[in-house]
Glucoside xylosyltransferase 1
Amino acid sequence: MPTPPTSTATPGQEQRCKEFSLSYWNPYWMLPSDVCGMNCFWEAAFRYDMKTRPNEKMHLAVVACGERLEETVTMLKSALIFSIKPLHVHIFAEDQLHHSFKDRLASWSFLRRFDYSLYPITFPGDSAADWKKLFKPCASQRLFLPLILKEVDSLLYVDTDILFLRPVDDIWSLLKKFNSTQIAAMAPEHEEPRIGWYNRFARHPYYGRTGVNSGVMLMNMTRMRRKYFKNDMTTARLQWGDILLPLLKKYKLNITWGDQDLLNIMFFHNPESLFVFPCQWNYRPDHCIYGSNCREAEEEGVFILHGNRGVYHDDKQPAFRAVYEALRNCSLEDDSVRSLLKPLELELQKTVHTYCGKTYKIFIKQLTKSIRNRYDTPPKER
């Protein structure tokens, strides 16, 4: 048994540590002198983690086609306004949009915690035409991200019509909550089965009671690439790269929402592989159009806003549009972000004649906290 290390702790440290047993089977002499007691391994690991985690890079992916440039740039702006750790964005876009993306993002070069990569839209082999016309142009590109971004371990995929009202860091941290079998995380498609689409109309298997929505999808892609999936096409389990095309061929006449439906089918057969996060991480008009039905958002506010069905650009859901316009017109300067709330609240108050507008405070509850934490807290306290 090695000789116990001589304590170099100060009297205060000895007082803090004296009630904790210290096992000497492990050579603790390599640890800093102020690390003692209360499980030396975990305290040292925590101190190391605090030093290294701020440099951990998060990976965000988006697929943009057609008239989605402005919407995508606004989404990226909302991500950067609050994010703390460095963020690398993988942008998959039609060739004609690449120059515009480079022009718009060039002005953000001063942000040291942000960089991006641009990719063309690509689908495998002879089935490319089928994949491109599935649901919306380019939407099914997301299915191939684990196969294209082979060097990326984990990834947050979002649709272009997403707005972050809370740091990306917070949803990224959900990766640590995955158990050993979970490979991805999504929110339910509906909270209320009476208005659910999948449980009333789907002609294919779907996850859980009401299906899941793939507009916000957190992925451990290393696990996705390694996993062998149960399926209803063969008794053999198939890996991600082998299951997609057979799944499309079997169900392409029965699916309405394209790649989202395929994901629902996959996780129906492999429910142990999905981590389901609450609706406030993917808040859509369905959560308020017939009355509020996202309890978590009512309690804590909306974390991620999803303006599907084009509600950012028409008058059907003015509360959603008000938030989008506020962030679209906001610059990345601190003063611009700080002054965002009051005008936005005034605009939201004009929407109380709508169901979503009646609960307008949930749209700014978390946003207020995010701005205060990121911009009003002294740097040493952040």
Summary: Confidence is low (pLDDT under 50) at residues 1-54. The chain has two domains: 58-277, 285-376. The chain is about 40% helix and 15% strand. Residues 285-376 form one domain.
